[in-house]
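Example 3.2
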Amino acid sequence: MEPCQSEGAWQTYITVKTVLNTLAAILGLSLAVSAASTVDAANRYAYGANIGWVDFRADTNNGAVLGEYVCSGYIYSANVGWINLGGGSPVNGIQYQNNAANDFGVNQDGLGNLRGFAYGANIGWINFENTGAPRIDLKTGNLSGFVYGANVGWISLSNAVAYVQTDTIARGIVSGTNGLPDAWQYQYFGHLGVDPNADPDGDGMSNLQEYLAGTDPTLTADVLKITLYSATAASPNMVNQFTWTSHPTRCYTIQERQDLNPLTPWLDSGLGLLSPDAGGTTARTLVESAANMYFYRIQAVRPLLGP
């Protein structure tokens, strides 16, 4: 808990902890069949002074799976055993509410922030909360910050000796054939079976394109587009300046090709994967040879895309 909270916030914290402590009395910890861990084989260890090394990859098959909506799987410590990050199937279909025995775990908010509760039968609850600020760097996959357990103290996700890194962020569960994660459909439409090709907000982007871009499919003004482009001659080069709408949950590439033949592949402009600027737009400058003509587009990239 943060040191300076209002009385109301303190009361809320106590209520949550009371619920969780009640759940602990009825929770069993048995390893279910899990997806293979997303955590890197080399960079997998967190450390706590009172608990020692904590392995986020564990035995690979049951290790931590860091997802775009929720985390699942287990982490392991030789000193305290298995710690459950969550079952992967929240009751509301989107994220864990941490208020029931079948609905606890660690959420990922799309920005890389990890929040919620993990549980170990031998140590109780591990809190992923604002004070420790545990998070994933969406470009590198590196974890940072701290998590806290009343029985084991602080656990650091990165230090001078070791750190935890996820190779991918697992795609949300897709139970249908429309290519849209169940959690995304529940988040924006409240049900499954959403038509991926429909455009309910009339902004020219399909539901599937909105998901890939990280935009709101029910809000016309929220759409990926280039808002400003200029080209200035600076012999022998051309200085191209781009501004486009962006979201902090996505990275971007500027792609180019020299004609509009649909068979001509779009290629990266050479700037690579770009993190978004603060605010609602991102601006970049690209210098090209003035002797060549290019067509450009901006592509949104879901960071660390995983299966």
